[in-house]
Structures are given as structure tokens and as C-alpha cells.
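Weekly sync, protein design subgroup
Attendees: M.S., D.O., the rotation student, P.L. (late)

Item 1: inverse folding check
M.S. brought a backbone from last month's batch and wanted to see whether the design step gives back something sensible before we order anything. D.O. pointed out we never logged the input encoding, so this time it goes straight into the notes. C-alpha cells as presented (164 positions):
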């Protein structure tokens, strides 16, 4: 049995290097996508071109929905509008309520939904709690490239090591 902190797929890649054909082969047709760290650096307002291209290509095959813990509707709505994707902000992940609301709204079978994010203790845990697939990606830096050392993820993995 998989632990609540285990990702279905720890890609070790930035989101824009996730292969759409692999997602399709895994039966996924709906993607819930974290924003800060996953699509854009927390301290940036510019969406990297590689992310825009990946999102535009993904729209051809998947239903997309942004789901962010960020409490700023202004920030998340601006990003969602630029990408032309529905969104929820202040999601309070790993709490399930907002994620479950989104799952009901998109009307997809939970077996065909995956959440993509850069954090174990928010994105991966909420996905596992909602019985959907979870995909861990590399956090993006200000330059739009994956950061080399993700201190938050390192701390999360260290905590997991000691509690397992």
C-alpha cells in the first residue's frame, strides 16, 4: 500500500518536460496543476515560454484546472487568465475540500485525474487523500529553469525519512 506522502510519479522533471503521451497512456484526461513553484517561480510574474507551450499543447488532450494555495486571487487569476484556465486560489492543500470541489466541478472520473505539483506536503498529500494520481515535478527558478537545490523538498523528504 502506498503511503500518503508517496507520489504516483516522481518525475524529477520540470512540468514542461512531462511527456503528454505518458499521461495519456496512464489513462489521465484531467490535470489539476499547482501554480507557484510548478508553473512559475513564487517571486515572478512572468510565465516561462516553455510552460506556456506545454500548457497550450496539454489543452489539446486534457482538461486543465489551476489549484493554488496562494491567497492572492489577483496573482492567481492573472496567471489563469493568461493561460486561459479555470482556477481556485487559497486552496489550503493538503486539506481536501477545495480539491474535492474542483473534482466535482470538472466531472471526471477520479481514476483519470492527476494533480501536478512541486511539494509533497501540499500537492502530493492532497492528491493521495482525494484518491487521484499525483505527479511531483521540479520547482522552477526565476529564470524558468528547474532549481538545482530545492531546500523545501529536501526538508520534506528528511521529515518523511524519520516518520516512516
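Designed sequence read out in the meeting:
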Amino acid at each position: 500500500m502506498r503511503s500518503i506522502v508517496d507520489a504516483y510519479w516522481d518525475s524529477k522533471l520540470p512540468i514542461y518536460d512531462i511527456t503528454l503521451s505518458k499521461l495519456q497512456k496512464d489513462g489521465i484526461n484531467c490535470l489539476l496543476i499547482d501554480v507557484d513553484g510548478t508553473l512559475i517561480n513564487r517571486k515572478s510574474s512572468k510565465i516561462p515560454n516553455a510552460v506556456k507551450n506545454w500548457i497550450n499543447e496539454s489543452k489539446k488532450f486534457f482538461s486543465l484546472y489551476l489549484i493554488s494555495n496562494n491567497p492572492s486571487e489577483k496573482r492567481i487569476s492573472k496567471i489563469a487568465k493568461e493561460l486561459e484556465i479555470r482556477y481556485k486560489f487559497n486552496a489550503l492543500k493538503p486539506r481536501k475540500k477545495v480539491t474535492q470541489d474542483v473534482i466535482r466541478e470538472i466531472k471526471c472520473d477520479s481514476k483519470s485525474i492527476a494533480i501536478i505539483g512541486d511539494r509533497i506536503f501540499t500537492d502530493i498529500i492532497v492528491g493521495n487523500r482525494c484518491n487521484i494520481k499525483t505527479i511531483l515535478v521540479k520547482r522552477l527558478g526565476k529564470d524558468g529553469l528547474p532549481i538545482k537545490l530545492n531546500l523545501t523538498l529536501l526538508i520534506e523528504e528528511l521529515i518523511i525519512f524519520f516518520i516512516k
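Discussion: The chain has a mean pLDDT of 96. Strands lie at 9-10, 30-33, 63-67, 86-88, 113-117, 133-136.
Action: P.L. to compare against the previous round before Friday.
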